[in-house]
Amino acid sequence: MAWEDVKPILRPEGVHMGIMQVDKDLCTSCGLCIENCPFSCWEMGEDDHPKMKDEYACFSCYNCKVACPVEAISIVQSYYAEAPGFWATSPHRLPAVLPLKPKDKDGNPDQWNAIEKAVLERRSVRNFTKDPVPETLIRRVLEAGRFAPSAGNCQSWKFIVITDRKLLDEIDQTVQFVLGNIASMYRDDNQVQNLAAMIDINQPGTYDPRLAIGGMGAIAKGEMGGKTGGATLNAPAVILLVSDTRSIGGPQINIGICGQNMNLVANSLGIKSCWVGFVAVLNLVPGFHEKLGINPPWTIVSSLCLGWPEFKQEGIVPREFRPVTWFRPGAAGPVEETEKGFETV
């Protein structure tokens, strides 16, 4: 791609990172919001209360809000990008809304069932204790993936389980080296043009500002998970999700279904987990596939970091409410709903 074709992707305009705020009257200065921020957006202020850094990349995950034991953190503004920029959110800008209250088939108030609770309360956990995860429990997580649905029943996955910290450290160093170079080029107004040739205009997500500025930036600094850490988050166990590139429907959708099964089952066992897609850059490093026993047509798509949570990192937070379009019997045409008129928890 020519630079002018991809300039709106690599030099986005109208991007507004999220803004969170601490109520100093409630805050106990425990620092859990700082520890639980994936991209290290927080720091402790001179008054011993957390504050957002002068330069940060908050992508509105609200992990800081979940970790706070006294509910001292509030949302001032969610991440959004203005139109007509390439990354513009649509519609501009989406409200952050809690889950809608459940109703039964007759429209009466109802209660969430166990599966709904598991989905709504699940959070990505990035802070683990050093305690190992027993292989018996890892096996149950793997079985949840093995029995996931897949396009055409192609079952286009296999798993590589790594509990050897030495190998995980090597993965961290390799991922940091690759992404550190990309992040360095991205930040440099002269070198950034060299990235033009690497962009697939049909799959530009690697350079979404939330990832290019926040994720790769945190990896480059070794600050993933709110403290010193690499791509594997100092987790005691990591499962690489490997896919057959020939899979029906493409590797990503099947691995996504399979991995979410594993994620939810891990949570149900008391283990916590986090999706980490950064490990896919290992596909670009000569010799690393062989080291991991991966041969064509197989490739790394993503990974799950598993461990015991160091502190509470789960709970319900607001999510963007993107209007749903309905085509109902007898209607003159499509009807697009809004969040207005809905009750939330």
Describe this structure in words.
With 345 residues, this protein is of the alpha+beta class. The protein folds into two domains: 104 residues, 2-Layer Sandwich (Alpha-Beta Plaits), CATH 3.30.70.20; 183 residues, 3-Layer(aba) Sandwich (NADH Oxidase), CATH 3.40.109.10. 28% of the residues lie in helices and 16% in strands. The strands form six sheets. The chain has a four-stranded antiparallel sheet. Helix 5 packs across helix 8 and helix 6 packs across helix 7. It is globular and about 55 Å long. The mean pLDDT is 93.
Q: Can you give the mean pLDDT?
A: 93
- CATH homologous superfamily assignment of the largest domain: NADH Oxidase
Low-confidence stretches: none
CATH topology of the largest domain: NADH Oxidase
> Shape from CA axes?
globular
| Number of alpha- plus pi-helical segments | 9
CATH class of the largest domain: Alpha Beta
Give the SSE string.
HEEHEEHEEEHHEHHEHEHEEEE
Q: Helicity level, as a percent range?
A: 25-40%
The tally of structural domains comes to 2
Layout of strands and helices, then pairs:
Elements: H1 3-10, E1 15-16, E2 19-22, H2 32-35, E3 42-44, E4 50-52, H3 63-67, E5 73-77, E6 80-81, E7 96-97, H4 114-121, H5 135-146, E8 157-162, H6 165-187, H7 209-221, E9 237-244, H8 251-268, E10 272-275, H9 288-292, E11 298-307, E12 319-320, E13 325-326, E14 335-336
Antiparallel strand pairs: 1-6, 2-5, 3-4, 7-12, 8-9, 9-11, 10-11, 13-14
What's a concise summary of this model?
Helices cover 28% and strands 16% of the residues.
Features:
single chain, 345 residues, alpha+beta, Alpha-Beta Plaits, NADH Oxidase, four-stranded antiparallel sheet, two-stranded antiparallel sheet, 9 helices, 16% strand, globular
